[in-house]
Fold this protein.
Amino acid sequence: MTAPDTDAAPATVQSDSSDTGRRALGSGFMVVCQVVLGAVLLLIWQGASGRLVDNFFISNPVEVGTRLFGWIADGSLFLHIWATVYATVMGFIVGSIGGVVLGIWLGVSPFTSRLLNPYLSALNALPKVALAPLFVLWFGLGIESKIALAAVLVLFLVFLNTYAGVREVDQDLIDGARLMKATRTQVITKVIIPSAMSWMFAGLRISVPYALIGAVLGEMIAANRGLGYLVQFSGSQFDSAGVFAVLFVIALLAVALNFLVDIVQHRMQQWRVVGR
Amino acid sequence: MIDLQHVSKTFRKQDEMVDAVRDINLTIAQKEIVAVIGPSGCGKSTLLNMIAGLYAPSNGAVIYKGARVSDVNTAVGYMTQKDNLLPWRNVRDNVAFPLELAGVGKAERANRADQVINHVGLDGFAHRYPHELSGGMRKRACLARMLLYGAETALLDEPFAALDAQLKLVMHDLLLKLAAETGQTVVLVTHDLMEAVTLADRVLVCTRRPAMLALEQRIELKRPRDVLNVRFTNEFKEYYDTLWERLRVEYQEERL
């Protein structure tokens, strides 16, 4: 592949391949640097542990790896990951549907939105985590209370964005549709919702990490499975290696979720362009 | 056909009351093309909004075909300087929008939309989105949509103000052609006196805010008009001078 003159390839192809080659080399070099940095940090951690800082506080990479491997080997880690992912996804779905519906409804009814304004502001200002004990009372110790907490966090973000998007809709477009005999339902489905679409997507995008936060927090407060439960349990056992191991897994999960959102957003790019 | 009886409109701006339109009496006949001209921001657009039923008059009544306008007037087509095409729809779907609202099937919609798209000279652009079109093409798309909707009255609010002089002439020609074909009544609001005299059967001069009728001038230029050459005739110049004489007063007062 590297020999440029084996075939009578057109010059453009040659320069193309050398271009991509250089770019690949560039990003490959960066990846190497990043891996080296990670390895150095792990070495420093390993070296400092027990010498500079008590092992009890910061554990060390070998112990963390051993703990992680043990959980993977007995399969318990996947049970916890699944519980957290399930609560996150369900919370996200329930919260987004609620937020979108509420946002559109209040966006198109000025009377109701003014009526509810002080109450919604108060609810929004409330730290949603404080609702967790209530959800445990209502939905029990199972997965439902975690879904509820994640959903509430998502709901307000999506609601505020959808509402803003609906209020931003150009009144002239609405008037234009009404002059062409559009019914109220048609105005909502054919003008308001498409027009607010980019705002809704923005709300959905920023609320994904909050769904994870809600699920993990819910598990920390009262649960018998999930990554939040595991980090809480490890902490209460003074097992710092276990805590670090779970944090590592949660970070991986968050990165995976963001990656997923980027893919979906890329697919939706068309909507964002035309929804200006 | 359109009857304005002692129509006034007052807006509340913070604690101040602003008179936009004061005591206008006006009768517009079917198939007539009426141009309303006056200084910018004098309340001409408010007049159109009241005919469209988007604003209710504070005083007086708007009568459309014998019935008082109390809700949106769906017999009119409205076109503004800011062409209100839906940005997420391509030209064909924008033009076919009124048919879609009326529940016409997809195939028939596309078929009839393509016909009017060709008619206004947009053939080949049915799949383009509004932001991919030039200003003139967007105007054509608006005219096509109005044509397909079959509005019996066209309310035009400075529709061509953003276009360059040559493109304006082309659009004037298209507008006159379509109006003659469909027998549409046209109410045109503009601040371009040349445009008003070229297009209209009757030109109304408005005063500065609050808008009142200052002068009414019939334009007896024969139809069909050649929009390019009609402006070089003596008759045109006389109408132009008469109207400008009155209009200038409004602009002079404004400068003070």
Remarks:
- Chain A touches chain B at residues 170, 172-173, 175-183, 186, 190-191, 194-195, 197, 271, 274-276 (CB under 8 Å).
- Residues 63-274 of chain A form a domain with the MetI-like fold fold (CATH 1.10.3720.10).
- The first helix of chain A runs from residue 11 to 48.
